[in-house]
Design a protein that fits this description.
Elements lengths: L9 E5 L4 H12 L3 E6 L2 H11 L3 E6 L5 H10 L3 E6 L14 H24 L3 E10 L12 H21 L5 E7 L12 H8 L9 H12 L10 E4 L3 H5 L2
Parallel strand pairs: 1-2, 1-4, 2-3, 4-5, 5-6, 6-7
Length: 246
C-alpha cells in the first residue's frame, strides 16, 4: 500500500465509535482520508473527532435504525469517494423462537440502513466517480451457526445488494465489495464467556481476528490498489473454514 493511499478522498464510516468501525476510521486517517464519521453515541463520536483532529471533516450523530436518522445522514453528507458500512448488531435467536420483531431489529441495521443510505447517496449525486463502497458481511452468511439465522440471512442479503450495486454503477467506475470476517475481538466478543471462547478459538489456525485486521482489508478495497476489484466478498477467517474442511 502506498503512503497516504487515500489522500484527498472523503470517506464515510458508519458505526465509527467502536470495534471495526473505530479501527477503520483511525487507519483511514493515517492514510490521508478526510473522514465523515457517524454513530449514535455523541460522547464517543466527539472523543474520536478530538483524537483524529483535522482528518475528521464532519461528525453526524444519527440512529440509523430510524427513517429520520438515515435521511439526516444522507442530507448532511458531502460528496464522497468511499463509504464503509460497519454499523451492525448480533442478536442470537433460535429459529423456533424467531418473531417479526427479531427480524426487524437485525435487518434494520444490518441490511436496511446500509441499503437505504447507499441508495440515497447515489440518488442525491453524492457519490463521486470511481468511488468505492465496502460492506461488512460475515463468514456466517454461508456458514450459519445455531441461533444465527436472522444474522446470517441479513449478511447474505447485504452481499447480494453489494453485487447489484457493483453491476449497476460500474459505468461510473464505482466499485462495491464486502469483507466477511469470522470472530473478531470487538465489544461483541466480550459478551461470550471465557470458556466458550477458548474452546471456539481452537478452530482458528491463526487465532481470533483483531479489528485492525479487518480495517486493513477495508483500506485496500477503498484504495486505488484494488481498482480492478468489484462485486466480490473477501473472507477473513484466520483459517477457520479451511480447518473445518479437513
Amino acid at each position: 500500500m502506498k503512503p497516504k493511499a487515500l489522500l484527498n478522498r472523503t470517506i464515510l464510516v458508519t458505526g465509527s465509535t467502536s470495534g471495526i468501525g473505530e479501527a477503520t476510521a483511525k487507519l483511514l486517517a493515517e492514510n490521508g482520508a478526510s473522514l465523515v464519521l457517524t454513530g449514535r453515541n455523541i460522547d464517543k463520536l466527539t472523543a474520536l473527532k478530538k483524537e483524529l483532529g483535522a482528518s475528521v471533516a464532519l461528525t453526524i450523530t444519527a440512529d440509523l435504525t430510524t427513517h429520520d436518522g438515515v435521511q439526516a445522514l444522507i442530507e448532511q453528507c458531502p460528496a464522497l469517494d468511499g463509504v464503509v458500512h460497519s454499523a451492525g448488531i448480533v442478536d442470537p435467536v433460535a429459529v423456533k423462537f424467531l418473531k417479526a420483531k427479531h427480524l426487524q431489529k437485525t435487518f434494520a441495521i444490518n441490511f436496511e440502513a446500509p441499503v437505504l443510505i447507499s441508495s440515497g447517496l447515489l440518488a442525491k449525486g453524492k457519490i463521486n466517480k470511481n468511488a468505492s463502497f465496502v460492506f461488512i458481511s460475515s463468514v456466517s452468511s454461508n456458514h450459519p451457526y445455531p441461533g444465527g439465522a436472522a444474522y446470517s440471512a441479513s449478511k447474505n442479503a447485504i452481499e447480494s445488494f453489494s453485487r447489484s450495486l457493483a453491476l449497476e454503477h460500474s459505468v461510473s467506475g464505482i466499485r462495491s465489495n464486502c469483507v466477511a470476517p469470522a470472530m473478531v475481538k470487538t465489544p461483541i466478543f466480550d459478551e461470550f464467556d471465557e470458556e466458550t471462547m477458548k474452546k471456539h478459538g481452537e478452530n482458528y489456525l491463526l487465532g481470533f481476528g483483531e479489528p485492525i485486521d479487518v480495517a486493513n482489508s477495508i483500506l485496500f478495497l477503498l484504495s486505488p490498489s484494488s481498482s480492478w476489484i468489484t462485486g466480490t466478498c473477501m473472507t477473513l477467517d484466520g483459517g477457520l473454514i479451511i480447518k473445518h474442511r479437513k
